[in-house]
């Protein structure tokens, strides 16, 4: 049969301006991380008939199969598409509002301080949060992984080999080097050193692990037939929120019938239309990759930045990482639970974001923010709701932020109740 296709359904005046700029950077990664806070329940269901014809399995058995999957070696090609309904970061925001500007990856020509590296993963991997990308991946146990983002005329590669992590950007001919790769964190962080971004999934398995890492009764879970992905037989595991208020329609995970490895991850919005996230293998091989796959040595003329020589892009004040809702930093209050979790936090300076009437930021950036938001009022006062197809955020004029994969009404209700 044809490969499975998904179902359609963020001196005083200077500090304040700097705080507002940082606030814009925090909203997007925090909001994206919030999707990972959604939790699931274990509702048994038998697989329906389908092609390929696979033995019946319950949802809990399939989840256990994913958890028990011990795929150590593989190589393949992954296509990942993300459609939050936002313009491209590169074209929609410029100067100090562009991700990476003033930090890692922010060279002089990008509005940065010239000390960053275009190859720094802390900025580069966030590009996966928008648009369509083709990735080439390879793994040989916990000490060797490689991920390459392929563009039409360039390639960005992240290579973990033992204690060394190398990142190379062919477009700029720059490399980033980090040690202690084995101590890396979860998600995309496991592909790099201890300071690389956490919880930025890049493969179907990483997306699935974030969706399945906790369990409660807020979700219906069932096995909904079978599919064929990258030429392999797979079960379709479908997760849906039980309660109203979430912008998530459903999550579909195609699970390799033989190995239990997630082959495809699709997140569909409650509002319908194309998938918000669609990540799946187009080719996959579970054989041992060649050892040379993980070799890297900068060519002569390559600019090399060592870890610690550049700034970190997405950081809280004090250098702490932005974490997901369940592991939120002090000062981040979580309202609700499961799919309708909302994070409440304060912006630096305790003031809302600038408008087009403000001279604190470039007019282009301010007008861009105005165009995204809806002005609202309530018991909390007044503010602006910024909406995407999945993650919504209410930023009040007194500097409070309410953000989550929930509806506008849910945000307003949470803000009113917090007074």
Please characterize this protein's 3D structure.
The chain is an alpha+beta fold. The chain has a domain at 12-38 and 71-214 and 265-306: outer membrane lipoprotein receptor (LolB), chain A (Clam). It is built from 7 helices and 18 strands. A 12-stranded mixed sheet has the order 7-8-9-10-11-1-2-3-4-5-6-12, covered by helices on one side. A 6-stranded antiparallel sheet has the order 13-14-18-17-16-15, with helices on both faces. The chain is globular, with a radius of gyration of 21 Å.
Task: Pick out its properties.
18 strands; single chain; 17% helix; twelve-stranded mixed β-sheet; six-stranded antiparallel β-sheet; 7 helices; 419 residues; outer membrane lipoprotein receptor (LolB), chain A
Characterize this entry briefly:
The protein has helices at 12-35, 59-68, 89-92, 121-124, 204-212, 363-372, 408-417, and strands at 73-82, 131-140, 144-150, 155-161, 164-169, 174-178, 219-229, 232-241, 248-256, 262-269, 277-285, 303-306, 333-335, 342-346, 373-378, 381-387, 392-396, 400-404.
